[in-house]
Design brief:
Strand content: 25-35%
Oligomer: single chain
Structural class: alpha+beta
Order of helices and strands: HEEEHEEHHHE
Radius of gyration: 15 Å
C-alpha cells in the first residue's frame, strides 16, 4: 500500500510541475481545466499542492471531489483561504462549500465536462445521472465555489 501511495504522490508532483511550467489555458463556461490548488495543511500548517480540475459554470468557478474525505477537501474545510495556480499565474481565493441544488448542478456539469475515464470512475454516479441520483450521494461528495477578493 505504501508503494501505491508513493507512486500516487510522484504522479501528482510531476503533474504539479507541468502545470506550473505551462501557460494556463482559459477555462470555458461548462468546461474545466487543470490547475494547482494550494491549501494549508490542517495539521502541519504547510503549503500543500494538488492538481485539480477547475470547472467554470455560469460565471462561477468550482472544485469538485468524488470523496469528501480527501486531504485537500479537509484542508479547505479547516482553512478555506487558498491559491489557484498555473504557469506564472497565481490567484488568492476563498473556497466556499456548496450544497443543495447548486452542488447538484455543478456535479452534473463536471461529470459532463470530464473526459478521463479514471476520474469519472471515482464518482458514485456517471455523466447523465439525474438530479435525484446525484442528490442521493451529496453527503459523500464535495463541491466548493472559488470566490475572489475574499481570501
Amino acid at each position: 500500500m505504501a508503494r501505491k501511495s508513493s507512486e500516487f504522490a510522484e504522479v501528482n508532483a510531476e503533474m504539479v510541475r507541468k502545470l506550473l511550467a505551462a501557460d494556463p489555458r482559459p477555462v470555458p463556461d461548462g468546461g474545466y481545466e487543470l490547475r494547482v490548488l494550494e491549501t494549508t495543511g490542517r495539521r502541519s500548517g504547510r503549503t500543500r499542492q494538488t492538481p485539480l480540475g477547475v470547472l467554470r459554470l455560469g460565471g462561477g468557478r468550482y472544485l469538485v471531489s468524488p470523496d469528501a474525505n480527501r486531504d485537500w477537501v479537509r484542508n479547505l474545510a479547516a482553512a478555506p483561504a487558498c491559491r489557484v495556480r498555473a504557469g506564472g499565474h497565481s490567484e488568492s481565493v476563498r473556497a466556499q462549500p456548496v450544497n443543495g441544488d447548486e452542488a447538484v448542478s455543478v456535479i452534473s456539469a463536471y461529470l459532463t465536462a470530464v473526459q478521463a475515464p479514471w476520474a469519472l470512475a471515482a464518482f458514485p454516479v456517471g455523466p447523465g445521472a439525474s438530479a435525484d441520483e446525484i442528490t442521493a450521494h451529496l453527503d459523500s461528495l464535495a463541491v466548493f465555489r472559488l470566490e475572489t477578493g475574499t481570501a
